[in-house]
Amino acid sequence: MCGALGAAVALLATRQEWAEGTATVAGGAFSLTAKGSDVTGVPAALAIVGLAALVAVFAVRRAGRFAVAAVLALSGAGTVAAALVGASDSSALDDQAAKAAGDTSATVDALSHTAWPYVAAVGGALLLLAGLLALRYGRQWPAMSGRYERGGAPRRRPQTVDPDRPEDLWKAIDRGEDPTSA
Predict the structure, then answer these.
(1) Are residues 168 and 162 in contact, defined by beta-carbon separation less than 8 angstroms?
(2) pTM for the predicted model, two decimal places
(3) Burial zone of 148 (CB within 10 Å; 0-12 exposed, 13-18 middle, 19+ buried)
(4) Residues 158, 78: one domain?
(5) In degrees rounded to 5, what are phi and psi of residue 17?
(6) 163 and 132 share one domain
(7) Of 71-85, 91-105, 122-136, where does mean pLDDT reach its minimum?
(8) Do the domain assignments include residue 176?
């Protein structure tokens, strides 16, 4: 649950406003805002990778589970790192100011950051926790059943089927045999 919650929180946080500032041009000052996805796309991408790994960790066994759990933990750690680096980044707002002013050297004044990058980092920490728990306890978790996987050899010796009798055909199908393979 903490992995799914972490991915959802990180994805939600990257769609929110991370920074705001004021750009001054010849016509006056105007405010600019940057969403998390404008600042960096890494936390959202890693949250999606973590969500996929979270689903896959229950579908694989043994070494595969260990590898997928490691991917889950690494995606959480990467989400935390990228969100914290993006928390103080002003390049997205500087780019917007340069486009608005038509001057490549224009920058943003009165820059302020919101708490959303730290919320994304908390989501990444929850993904990291889920990955670490899967690494630690994943061996003990049940794997998906192989009940419906077909083996190479039939389990029972097929009975003879009379193709002229429909009830024999249906009984063969009920037993899991293919009445057409003769």
Answers:
(1) yes
(2) 0.72
(3) exposed
(4) no
(5) -75, 125
(6) no
(7) 91-105
(8) yes
